[in-house]
TrEMBL record:
One GO BP: N-acetylglucosamine transport
GO MF annotation, one: protein-phosphocysteine-sugar phosphotransferase activity
UniProt-recorded name of the protein: PTS sugar transporter subunit IIA
TM region positions: 76-94, 101-118, 138-158, 178-201, 285-305, 312-330, 336-359, 394-416
Stretches assigned to the PTS EIIC type-1 domain: 16-428
One Pfam family here: PTS_EIIC
Record keywords: Cell membrane, Membrane, Phosphotransferase system, Sugar transport, Transmembrane, Transmembrane helix, Transport
InterPro entries xref list: PTS_EIIC (IPR003352), PTS_EIIC_1 (IPR013013), PTS_Glucose_EIICBA (IPR050429)
Membrane topology note: Multi-pass membrane protein
Entries under PROSITE patterns matching the protein: PTS_EIIC_TYPE_1 (PS51103)
Record GO cellular component, one term: plasma membrane
Region (Disordered): 442-462
């Protein structure tokens, strides 16, 4: 016990300052992101080429109202992503969160956006600051960044004030009821501060970085850098922070109503023709890797397992490979070799970057509402064909995926056998009898910690 305590203490001391907080923020983003698949499904079924005028409605006119309803329902989710992120991040980040956490985030987001309204009739902050920044009258569109900021504020207010006791005559407003009140006050201050710094933020992120993504996002070099860094951050649980920038914030387009939208995913599904030609550049290249390449790696891990462990390893690898192929969830498989064979994982990251670079070079445009698995590939085939200039390029992703599957299989099998890497099924002989967890068990634990599942279980949320 003493040794365990010392080891735990040493582990905590070695942590990079702020690293665990960044991981918590990254994990909290997964809750609002989980709402995207249903939005993507509704949008796709409501599209003109599926149930709309160019699809089933061409043969059955009564389907057009159905398509309109579905498209409107899905569009409502994308239109309110900042609010969804505020609620999701608050609940996902706060420890022992409950309904008052979400209510606080809702109240906070409404006061936050109200404080940044420059309409003269409402006396918003920006109107008063207009002489200093020459900002046009209107409501600031922070995108999901505003939602993330308010979600974190609401979570912190909940953790700090949920047990607050007030004098007897104000006791009704104590405890959890006090959280929305204090969050509203903090959000007004945040709204004022954000409004003041918004011109600089807008210039740096939306106009410069976002403009670069729109102008050069389809550049192979951009895809390579993003894809490589994306995979390298997975072992540290920080990839969600990186993903939220190009997928939900950087780059913009307009929807059919002329409203400005932000981010690769949002513009892929909701962007009007002529304003979203740049979309898909940070998503397309993941399809060959998640659907084909990583299952190829799983096959190599199975073939290199020790004879007495092949049956067990095969069952596990089939499970994680199918999960990656169908849904695009790859963490359980990637964690199986990320730590025990990091040089091999580095090769995986570079190959992922090369896949994004290749798809960008070929002008293939595809996207996903959840991840780059078969489900999203099929659902979004029509939309991808429209943006890619025809179905041929979208079908080419399958051929590219098969090639990458062969590359992964050869590279993984060679590296595992050449350097005797301790991948699942190749553990030392004593592992089963000394109480040590198997490599795959360790990988599952790491994956659950990365996705926030472990924390949610500890707090009783699942």
């Amino acid at each position: 016990m003493a040794k365990d305590a010392v080891a735990t203490s040493t582990k905590k001391k070695r942590q990079i300052p702020g690293f665990s907080q960044m991981q918590r923020i990254g994990r909290s983003l997964m809750l609002p992101i989980a709402s995207l698949p249903v939005a993507a499904l509704l949008m796709r079924f409501g599209s003109a080429d599926v149930l709309g005028a160019d699809g089933l409605a061409k043969h059955a006119s009564w389907m057009q109202p159905v398509a309109d309803v579905l498209a409107g329902a899905g569009g409502a989710i994308f239109d309110n992503l900042p609010l969804i992120f505020a609620l999701g991040v608050a609940v996902g980040y706060a420890k022992k969160a409950d309904g008052s956490t979400a209510l606080a985030a809702l109240v906070g987001y409404l006061t936050f956006t109200g404080a940044g309204t420059s309409d003269k009739t409402q006396g918003g902050v920006l109107h008063a600051l207009a002489p200093y920044f020459s900002q046009k009258t209107g409501v600031i569109n922070y995108g999901v960044l505003g939602g993330i900021v308010i979600g974190l504020i609401a979570a912190k207010m909940y953790e700090k004030y949920r047990r607050t006791k007030l004098p007897t005559y104000l006791a009704f407003f104590g405890g959890r009821r006090f959280v929305p009140i204090v969050t509203a006050a903090a959000s007004v201050v945040a709204g004022v501060i954000m409004a003041i710094i918004y011109p600089a933020f807008d210039w740096l992120f939306n106009k410069q970085v976002g403009g670069f993504i729109m102008a050069h996002g389809s550049n192979p070099g951009t895809g390579f850098v993003f894809g490589t860094i994306n995979r390298l951050l997975i072992p540290f649980g920080l990839h969600h922070l990186l993903n939220s920038l190009p997928w939900f914030q950087l780059g913009n387009c307009t929807n059919a109503a002329g409203e400005t939208l932000h981010g690769d995913i949002t513009c892929f599904f909701s962007g009007a023709s002529g304003t979203n030609a740049w979309t898909g550049s940070c998503m397309t290249g993941f399809f060959p890797i998640m659907m084909f390449a990583l299952p190829g790696a799983a096959l190599a891990i199975y073939h290199t397992a020790k004879p007495e462990r092949k049956k067990l390893t095969g069952g596990v690898m089939i499970s994680v490979a199918l999960t990656a192929f169908l849904t695009g969830i790859t963490e359980p498989l990637e964690y199986a070799f990320a730590y025990v064979a990091f040089p091999l994982y580095l090769v995986h990251a570079l190959l992922t970057g090369s896949s994004l670079a290749l798809c960008n070079a070929l002008g293939i445009k595809d996207g996903f509402g959840f991840s780059a698995g078969l489900t999203d590939y099929i659902i979004n085939f029509g939309r991808a064909s429209e943006l890619s200039g025809g179905p041929g390029k979208v079908l080419l992703l399958i051929l590219i995926g098969v090639v990458y599957a062969v590359i992964y299989y050869v590279v993984f099998r060679f590296a595992i056998t050449k350097w005797n890497l301790r991948t699942p099924g190749r553990e030392d002989e004593g592992d089963d009898t000394t109480g040590r967890a198997s490599v795959f068990d360790e990988a599952q634990l790491a994956a659950s910690e990365s996705t926030g599942k472990a924390d949610a279980q500890k707090e009783g949320r699942i």
